[in-house]
From TrEMBL:
Keywords on record: DNA-binding, Transcription, Transcription regulation
Domain HTH lysR-type, first and last residues per copy: 1-58
Top-level taxon of origin: Bacteria
Molecular function as annotated in GO: DNA binding; DNA-binding transcription factor activity
UniProt keyword annotation of DNA-binding present: yes
CDD domains: HTH_ARSR (cd00090), PBP2_LTTR_like_6 (cd08423)
Protein name: DNA-binding transcriptional regulator, LysR family
Family: Belongs to the LysR transcriptional regulatory family.
InterPro entries attached to this UniProt entry: ArsR-like_HTH, LysR_HTH_N, LysR_subst-bd, WH-like_DNA-bd_sf, WH_DNA-bd_sf
């Protein structure tokens, strides 16, 4: 119900350029530019101004978007209120998550939604955290599971409602015959002399490990780059170095290695949250999914911890 041109303007604010906003919304840059100019003409104000090669939003645009955030949240709350007057839940719900969470959490969540609301259509979109926020703003996703980082919107961002789910520890992965393999736990500093397998520069995985190693006083010697946990673990299995992997991932099941819990002040951890558009968290289907995810993520992490302790 919110004018799509306002969504375009919001995406320009989020990404900084018309081109990036158009890519996030699956439009051409010329379409986004034309639509925003048309909106500005109708409102009688300037919304974008050129600064060298860059575009920036005017004070009028920022003022407009502050009202748009309120209107969007109120619309979502109105939909939540209407749930009380419907006896049969129909329509659809789309869930999004990064790959590890998508594979472990989303299938069972959709199955439970289908059992509780048999007339509801469910869909999954696998997406990286930053893309989840774009999909939410564009209205393509109703609930996203994200790893919260310094690059994702803050919990205080008025456009979103974020619900903490779990802390997902990163464990050290070493070959089965490695000199640390018999340890029940290690600190990240214990691997300072190892060859490391990290995600590519610029990825959250890379930044997290580099920052935690730096906090301990060393820079890891990087031998290989692998963004996927399975690829990294395969390289560890064949003796090419060590890596850290999310506890949620079960990459050691495919490539046998020794998974060792990291302890200490500088042990890297991912903070996992569920995110919806502001106001949407109280819609019947979304609230059901949020409550289920809160329970199931805790159960999964407790079971993984037990499995790790039983080795």
């Amino acid at each position: 119900m919110i004018d799509n041109r306002l969504t375009m303007l919001s995406m320009i604010e989020r990404h900084g350029t018309v081109t990036a906003a158009a890519e996030a919304l699956h439009y051409s840059p010329s379409t986004v530019s034309h639509q925003v100019k048309q909106l500005a003409t109708e409102l009688g104000v300037v919304l974008l101004e050129q600064r060298g090669r860059n575009i920036r939003l005017t004070p009028a645009a920022h003022s407009l978007l502050s009202h748009v955030d309120v209107m969007s949240a109120e619309w979502e709350r109105a939909l939540a209120d209407l749930d009380a007057y419907s006896t049969t839940v129909t329509g659809s719900i789309t869930l999004s998550a990064f790959s590890t969470a998508a594979s472990i959490l989303l299938p069972q969540t959709m199955r439970a939604l289908n059992e509780e609301f048999p007339h509801l259509a469910t869909q999954t979109i696998e997406a990286e955290p930053s893309e989840c926020y774009d999909l939410l703003l564009a209205g393509d996703v109703d609930l996203g599971i994200v790893a919260v980082t310094t690059d994702t919107p803050a919990g205080s961002d008025d456009r979103f409602a974020q619900q903490f789910l779990i802390d997902d520890p990163l464990d050290l992965m070493v070959p089965l015959d490695h000199h640390l393999a018999d340890r029940s736990s290690v600190s990240i500093a214990d691997a300072r002399e190892e060859t490391w397998i990290l995600g590519r520069p610029g990825t959250t995985y890379h930044q997290l490990v580099i920052a935690n190693c730096a906090s301990t006083g060393f820079t890891p010697r990087i031998g290989h780059y692998a963004n996927d946990w399975n690829t990294g673990t395969a390289l560890v299995h064949d003796g090419f170095g060590v890596c850290v992997a999310s506890r949620l991932s079960r990459s050691q099941d495919l490539h046998p290695v020794r998974r060792i819990p990291l302890t200490g002040e500088h042990a890297p951890t991912r903070h996992i949250a569920a995110v919806t558009r502001a106001g949407a968290q109280d819609r019947r289907t979304i609230r059901f999914a949020l409550d289920l995810l809160t329970r199931e993520t805790q159960n999964v992490m407790e079971q993984l911890g037990r499995d790790l302790g039983d080795r």
